[in-house]
Amino acid sequence: WLYKERKGGVYQSTHVTSSKTYLHASDFPLPDETPHFPKHDQVLEYLNSYANHFNLWSHMHFEYDIIKIDKGRDDQWQVTFRCDGKEIKEDFDGLVITTGQHQTANDLHHVEPFDRFTGTTSHSISYKKPDDKIHRDKTILIVGGGETASDLAVELSTVARRVYMSIR
């Protein structure tokens, strides 16, 4: 939920598509002044407040590289990770993988009819905000019909000549 000018993560205009009524934890409601569909920075503020309120920071690890996951003894998960060049193994009772379904772009440059396309292509993982050099007055085709595709179609329609969506 922290916007950064690097590949991946949230784009500049990211907001949730679930109402705040259903977004918050049952034991820690969102503040009353939160809009019904909060932006990424408001969600980040809420998550930070939640972690502070329940003293969760000491249980979290950031910027660790997961190297290997094995089913360990006693139905535990053994996770091998790297931090600051050091390899560490730890056992966990549960495991949740939240990498995202479409975090890796498919290379379609060798697939018909994309192999004949000479224009610019990109994947939503590289998108951050409308770029005048890339999007202004262009005709843009968005392939897909999920939430990200819809978000980008709306946002790019403010600068592009035309935006089309291809959905199967």
Furnish the topology, listing elements before pairings.
Blueprint: H1 20-23, H2 40-53, E1 65-71, E2 77-83, E3 86-92, H3 132-135, E4 139-143, H4 147-156, E5 162-166
Parallel strand pairs: 4-5
Antiparallel strand pairs: 1-2, 2-3
Protein name: Flavin-containing monooxygenase
GO molecular function: flavin adenine dinucleotide binding; N,N-dimethylaniline monooxygenase activity; NADP binding
Organism: Rotaria sordida
Rg, Å, rounded? 20 Å
Strands of the biggest beta sheet: in what spatial order? 1-2-3
- Main β-sheet: number of strands, strand sense, barrel status? 3 strands, antiparallel
Task: Indicate the multimeric state.
Answer: single chain
Please tally the helical runs, counting DSSP H or I stretches of 4 or more residues.
4
| Fraction of residues in helix | 10-25%
Proportion in β-strands: 15-25%
Number of domains: 3
What is the end-to-end distance?
30 Å
> What string, H for helix and E for strand, traces the elements in order?
HHEEEHEHE
Low-confidence stretches: none
**Helix/strand structural class:** alpha+beta
Mean pLDDT: 89
* Strand elements, count: 5
Write down the overall geometry.
Answer: globular
Q: Can you give a write-up of this model?
A:
With 168 residues, the chain is of the alpha+beta class. It has three domains: 1-60, no CATH class; 61-98; 114-166, no CATH class. It has helices at 20-23, 40-53, 132-135, 147-156, and strands at 65-71, 77-83, 86-92, 139-143, 162-166. Strand 2 (77-83) and strand 3 (86-92) form a beta hairpin. Belongs to the FMO family.
